Backbone:
């Protein structure tokens, strides 16, 4: 029987962002797995959770992925929470990598098998002026992208004023739609920065058909309020990138509050939990549009999930001709998925199809990095 012998953690700065990579080793020297946590900015908290889980996972059979998931989730009275499920996610993804390598099949074969030959991506587009917005959109269109997701640059240096942002976009977005035509899918991410009244005002002021979906306009803790908002605006919603379990997704899927499920495999509980959310979404004809802001391990795990799923829209892609983030540096990831135009081909290699340079990561000291702390004109804080 194969056994887990070690779980290693690598919190590391890669270019302009931090990542937490884990490696699970086994008593079969050449069989190991890579995983990643999605709780950006709180990597050391997740390291602590991984160490707690390692205390009883080491010595177990890595093939028993579902049983290990349940043991991790139920092993403390205080179940769930983003820190714990981020740790579970990283471990679960690494276990799938191990099992794929052990059986010499790609991970998607463990999830039901391949349903498509490639994954279409939408491109993230960050902007802070109308000129930048239009220029970048044209660049992406020429590169072959047929879907883009916009988000306004806010790095915390100046106050965020919702009404000013809304006023700008009411003017800019119709121009963008005219420039892009009707084939291009255009989404807008407001990153939880608005109130219900602000969202409603904003959507009433832009012409129908200007955008195709609105992502995370308000905070998600209260599904009932989101249900009220759903009835007040006329565009599809894209929600769930920060959800940490199928239970958190459930009210949004059950009541058709969201039309796109923004699953993050590195936060929701790994591939084990993600596939359950995919199935839940399918029952309400909701497509999945995964969150993918990290690096190649998250990308690879998500590609395998989408390869084995029927209800797929697009995969988020941040490394594009206009938004290269440096998080897929080849010196850290000598083997990784390669974007071809606006899509990823489905891999054929065993496991995830990713390798991480642990020697390089071990040489570097971890640098703490905070996401921007946005504030309003009166000095109070708002969401980044």
Residues:
């Amino acid at each position: 029987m194969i056994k887990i012998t070690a779980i290693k953690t690598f919190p590391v700065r890669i270019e302009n962002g931090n990542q937490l990579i884990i490696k699970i080793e086994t008593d079969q020297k050449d069989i190991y797995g890579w995983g990643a946590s999605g709780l950006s900015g709180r990597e050391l908290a997740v390291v602590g959770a991984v160490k707690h889980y390692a205390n009883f996972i080491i010595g177990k059979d890595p093939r028993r992925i579902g049983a290990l998931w349940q043991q991790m989730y139920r092993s403390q009275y205080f179940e769930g929470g983003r820190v714990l499920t981020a740790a579970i996610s990283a471990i679960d993804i690494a276990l799938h990598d191990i099992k794929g390598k052990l059986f010499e099949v790609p991970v998607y074969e463990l999830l039901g098998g391949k349903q498509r030959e490639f994954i279409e991506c939408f491109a993230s587009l960050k902007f802070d002026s109308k000129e930048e917005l239009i220029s970048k959109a044209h660049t992406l269109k020429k590169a072959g992208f047929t879907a883009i997701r916009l988000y306004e640059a806010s790095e915390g240096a100046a106050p965020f004023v919702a009404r000013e942002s809304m006023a700008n976009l009411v003017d800019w977005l119709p121009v963008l739609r005219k420039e892009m035509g009707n084939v291009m899918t255009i989404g807008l991410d407001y990153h939880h920065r608005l109130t219900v009244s602000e969202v409603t005002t904003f959507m009433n002021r832009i012409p129908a058909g200007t955008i195709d979906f609105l992502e995370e306009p308000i905070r998600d803790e209260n599904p009932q309020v989101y249900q009220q908002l759903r009835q007040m605006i006329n565009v599809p919603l894209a929600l769930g990138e920060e959800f940490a379990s199928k239970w958190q997704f459930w009210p949004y899927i059950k009541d058709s509050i969201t039309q796109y499920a923004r699953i993050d495999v590195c936060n929701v509980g790994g591939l084990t939990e993600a596939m359950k959310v995919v199935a839940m979404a399918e029952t309400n004809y909701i497509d999945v549009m995964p969150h993918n802001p990290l690096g190649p391990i998250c990308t690879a795990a998500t590609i395998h999930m989408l390869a084995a799923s029927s209800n797929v829209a697009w995969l988020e892609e941040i490394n594009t001709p206009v938004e290269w983030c440096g998080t897929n540096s080849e010196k850290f990831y000598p083997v990784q998925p390669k974007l071809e135009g606006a899509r990823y081909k489905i891999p054929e290699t065993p496991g995830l199809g990713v390798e991480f340079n642990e020697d390089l990561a071990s040489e570097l000291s971890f640098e703490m990095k905070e996401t921007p702390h946005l504030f309003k004109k009166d000095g109070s804080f708002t969401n980044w």
